[in-house]
Design a protein that fits this description.
Helix 3 runs parallel beside helix 4. Strand 4, helix 4 and strand 5 form a beta-alpha-beta unit. It contains 9 helices and 13 strands.
Length: 337
Amino acid sequence: MDTFINLDHGSGGLASQHLIGNLFLKYLTSPQLRDLEDCAVLGEYAGRIALSTDSYVVDPLFFPGGDIGCLAVHGTINDLVMRGARPLALSLALIIEEGFALDRLERIIASVAAASEAAGVAVVTGDTKVVPRGKVDQLFINTSGIGLASHRHDISGKKAQPGDAVILSGTLADHGITIMSCQAGIEIDGGIASDTQPLHRLVGALLENDAGSVHVLRDPTRGGLATSLCEIAAASRVDIAIEEDRLPIKPAVGTACELIGLDPLYLANEGKCIVVCDRDGAEEILQTMRRLPEGRDAALIGWVGEGRAEGRVSLTTRIGGSRLLEPLTGQPLPRIC
């Protein structure tokens, strides 16, 4: 194989065939993908079909705790899961800049394979395009996911109800502060790393026990926790109040945010979810989450109240004050996912 990607690799000819056969199929082993058809036929399933797609342009491509490959797999699985769907299969499409090193591409595809295998969600179809130098920054990935949502589940951002509890599955801002520090070339002590991980097993455990008590699921990625809560409040026409003392934040992340002047409420997370559920079932849900590795740091952070048509989110500070939270404006961290 060549050392770098060239335009021939995107031509659809012999070089493309070698790239697919010698690299992609070396790691991605699902029978549907190995058929090399333009479409994968998955079989027959009972349930409502869930479909999601997302694109990944993170910079840098490799970072503590992960890389663009596993991030793409985890992110698309989590988008399906936030509607209560069981993920079945993924697609993988890459836009690669001419001159991209093949050994780096292999690392990324190996990461995709490892992430999909660990999650039990196969990549079954894909596409590769190569563009001239300067037409794309190194590598962009698009993944789509298909899943099944049971008729038992009716989970949506519009379903939050007054009296509901608000639970966060783990610590805030790990991914955002990791990417920021890499981009700025800042070394932060404390073992800070991205939290990228799939959440289908965690959510599956919650829904298996009592699907009816979970009303809303949301992964607070771009825009962070504050923006996600604002979206839920607006969609459900409720007020949401959270407490600063209840927010789970790693000491190293909190210190880094204070030093740099960033608010962890607005930083991205790639392996956490918000759960809005019945107050009566909140403690059981919290304990179920804490028994699993993905939810060991889960915390009850607030409550849902009666609201106005536009919805509102407030934070009770450590000193007893109240701060109104607005959706993110501007772009504090470029290319975080």
